[in-house]
Write a structure and sequence with these properties.
Elements (H helix, E strand, L loop, with lengths): L15 E5 L4 H12 L3 E6 L2 H20 L14 E6 L5 H14 L5 E4 L17 H24 L3 E6 L22 H22 L5 E7 L17 H9 L7 H13 L9 E4 L2 E3 L3 H4 L1 H14 L6 H8 L2
Helix pairs in contact: 1-7, 3-4, 4-5, 4-10, 5-9
Length: 323
């Protein structure tokens, strides 16, 4: 997996950051560390009860770490964490739009959007919007979220960032332009890989369209991390995978170690003037030829916009064209 550089000292005072799926695992550690560095962090997830419990746990751990420097893993810049829950169900395009409107109504800036939430080996049933679950939750709803929050990101820059938590599994994706949701392939591992590859491809497409806008776009592989991703309710993980996760648990990264790559992409000032970078082990790395293929990127971009046409206004498209 390689060693990871620790996060350099950063002060995120006056920064506002949204982290999707921040109530557990990598998202939890990402949100907590960013809040400890001074940011106002929005925990965007489905369950208010789980989010509230997570926020309380963050604050408890923060108090313990503040009292004992030996426990600190990032430079703590605040006495109390500024963390807030907002409801977001990425399995519903309407919920995604409701989140957008609720966020805009608060009048908050948005300096970093961390698209962290995701599913792995999810259900076979389509979402209420009629899409394959991995395609919608991991990729399409995040695409919609980004599109509608672009004006806020632009006005909060320069240096605003969009960070998508992808996976090294993107390398196992296939390409079928007539079945981008992978509906004809019942292998949910392949569906997961495709959704993660789409996140990387989308990074390139978006970065190209946002050149000169002050919004930088990154994606990343957090490492093989021991989280609940493969064991959450409603996810049917093959027995062989469960065995691997159990037997190989000592080799897996902790959620914080996994979050380090997200933290570098979200806050490391070394990348203030960079965009379209894919991180692994907290450092920029190259990606494979399929993810870099511009023709495929454009096919995916156009297909995604077609899927979202009922939720995209002319103003949104003008925002993309105005950069």
């Amino acid at each position: 997996m390689g060693s990871q550089p620790s996060l350099p000292e950063v002060n995120l005072a006056d920064k506002t950051i949204v982290v999707t799926g921040a109530n557990t695992g990598i998202g939890y550690e990402t949100a907590k560390a960013l809040a400890q560095a001074g940011a106002k962090v929005i925990v965007a997830c489905r369950s208010e009860s789980k989010a509230t419990e997570a926020i309380e746990q963050m604050k408890k751990e923060h108090a313990e770490e503040k009292a004992d420097p030996k426990k600190q893993r990032v430079q703590i810049k605040v006495d109390d964490l500024n963390v807030e829950f907002m409801a977001l169900d990425l399995g519903s395009l309407q919920s995604t739009m409701t989140f957008v409107e609720a966020y805009k109504s608060k009048g908050l800036p948005l300096h970093v959007l961390v698209c962290n939430a995701g599913i792995m080996w999810g259900p076979e049933e389509l979402t209420s919007d009629g899409y394959e679950p991995h395609f919608q939750i991991n990729y399409l709803s995040h695409f919609l979220l980004i599109l509608h929050l672009l004006p806020v990101l632009k006005s909060s820059g320069p240096g605003a960032r969009v960070v998508s938590v992808s996976s090294l599994m993107y390398r196992f994706a296939g390409w079928n332009a007539s079945d981008l949701q992978c509906l004809t392939n019942k292998d949910r591992g392949k569906r997961y890989s495709n959704s993660k590859c789409y996140q990387v491809m989308h990074m390139f497409s978006l970065a190209q369209r946002l050149e000169g806008s002050g919004v930088n776009v990154f994606s990343l592989h957090p490492g093989v991390v021991k989280t609940e991703l493969a064991t959450r309710e409603g996810q049917q993980v093959p027995g062989s995978t469960k065995f691997f996760l159990s037997a190989g648990s000592k080799m897996l990264r902790t959620p914080f170690d996994g979050a380090l790559t997200s933290l570098h992409a979200a806050a490391n000032p070394a990348y203030d003037e960079k965009t379209a970078l894919y991180f692994d082990s907290s450092k920029p790395q190259s990606v494979n030829s399929m993810a870099r293929n511009k023709d495929k990127q454009e096919i995916l971009w156009k297909y995604s916009l077609e899927c979202l046409k009922d939720h995209i206004t002319e103003d949104v498209m003008k925002e993309l064209a105005s950069t």
